[in-house]
């Protein structure tokens, strides 16, 4: 999950030249929003051991989707990563379910 946050921060920083060239141009608000959000994502990468971190990761995507105000492409980045985080939540739940039932490959006994 920390790796996903680092990749997401890189993608957010890559939006800087796009907003500058295609969007309304970089102003103090848009530059502060994008750089600040990338820093928040990098800081969140350090708290991924906490049990509530996955829900915080999903919640922060709402802030990125709200970046539609800065430039619609930033909102699209938020939607794409929201889908990625929903998939991570689903896969995490599936692994935990299988772990409780003892169905993971590492939990299987070798054939006799």
TrEMBL record:
Record's keyword terms, sorted: Membrane, Transmembrane, Transmembrane helix
Top-level division of the source organism's lineage: Bacteria
InterPro entries: DUF4233
Pfam assignment, any one: DUF4233
Transmembrane segments: 30-47, 76-93
Protein name: DUF4233 domain-containing protein
């Amino acid at each position: 999950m920390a790796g996903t946050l680092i990749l997401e921060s890189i993608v957010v920083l890559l939006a800087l030249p796009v907003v500058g060239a295609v969007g309304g141009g970089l102003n103090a608000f848009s530059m502060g929003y994008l750089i600040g959000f990338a820093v928040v994502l990098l800081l969140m990468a350090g708290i991924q051991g906490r049990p509530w971190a996955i829900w915080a990761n999903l919640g922060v995507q709402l802030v990125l989707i709200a970046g539609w105000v800065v430039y619609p492409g930033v909102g699209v980045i938020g939607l794409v990563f929201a889908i990625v985080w929903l998939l991570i939540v689903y896969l995490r739940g599936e692994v935990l379910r299988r772990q409780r039932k003892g169905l993971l490959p590492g939990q299987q006994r070798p054939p006799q």
